[in-house]
Amino acid sequence: MANRLCRESKEQLVRDMFSRIAPVYDIVNRLMSWGQDMRWRRVAVNLACPEQGRVLDVATGTGDLALELARHTNSVVGLDFCPEMIKLGRLKAGRKKMAGQIDFILGDALTLPFESDSFDCALNGFVLRNVSDVNLFLSELRRVVKPGGRVICLELVKPQHGAIGALYRFYLCRIVPLLGRWVSGDKKAYRYLPDSVNNFVNIAEFQNTMKRIGFHRVDYRSLSRGTVAVHIGVK
Ligand SMILES: C[S@@+](CC[C@H](N)C(=O)[O-])C[C@H]1O[C@@H](n2cnc3c(N)ncnc32)[C@H](O)[C@@H]1O
Q1: Given the CA of residue 25, which atom of ligand 1 is nearest to it?
Q2: How far is the CA of 174 from the centre of ligand 1 (A)?
Q3: Residues 6+ apart with CB under 8 A from 142
Q4: pTM, 2 dp
Q5: Residue 223 β-bridge partners
Q6: Which atom of ligand 1 approaches the CA of 108 most closely?
């Protein structure tokens, strides 16, 4: 009971936050990442090898990962539980003449409304820290991909020790909240971002979680001097 309440309150908090920042979400991403976030998504998509398959982008937000996938395959499903984010994704796909390739669906990543073994691969970007139950999230991803299919998770990495780690920590914890607040006018949302990165598990722990859930050939690719990781697992 207490767990369920905790889970529901985190989901509510996350959904409310993304509905508030939806209009500025893309621009803050570009600014915060110094224009690198689209490159990170391209790497994730290339590792998924989605050619000609049916592909799922879970927690698609404003659809940037789904749009990148749609350059490789005609059958992309983008799911998110925040109507404001998904609405912007649909508009963007329309503007880019890709609306016919992406099916945007409102739904919960923890109870995916799809049959088992129904996707060739599944991806997600920057959502691991936001879900209330990572084990359930990964189990659902594993359930809906076909045997042999890949699951790819793109995520920010918790700052490590050393000079790069210290610089990254300073940028993430001091500069990002100021930048986010300045552009969005939202005090809480971009304070939540560094907190969620710092509270998330490290790469080795996440890989162990993937293995425990039943993924094979678990691996990762490190990007932007170890500040971002693309995790890979095969069903
Ligand atoms: C940081 S954004 C990432 C959006 C997108 N993947 C990208 O690459 O920009 C996180 C997204 O996860 C969504 N989200 C968080 N928890 C979710 C859940 N349980 N089910 C569906 N969507 C969820 C939020 O609504 C938000 O759009």
Answers
A1: 9
A2: 23
A3: 151, 213, 214, 215, 233, 235
A4: 0.94
A5: 228
A6: 20
Question: What is the Cα 21 distance to its own chain's centre?
Answer: 16
Q: Is the CB of 138 under 6 A from ligand 1?
A: no
Domain residues for the domain of 194 are 2-234
Q: Are 102 and 78 in contact (CB under 8 A)?
A: yes
CATH number at residue 82: 3.40.50.150
- What spacing in Å lies between the alpha carbon of 27 and ligand 1's midpoint? 16
Residue 205 has pLDDT above 60, yes or no: yes
95: left (phi over 0), alpha (psi -120 to 50) or beta: alpha
pLDDT, tens only, 138-168 = 999 999 999 999 999 999 998 888 888 899 8
Per the structure, the count of domains in the chain is: 1
Between the CA of 128 and the centroid of ligand 1 the distance, in Å, is 9
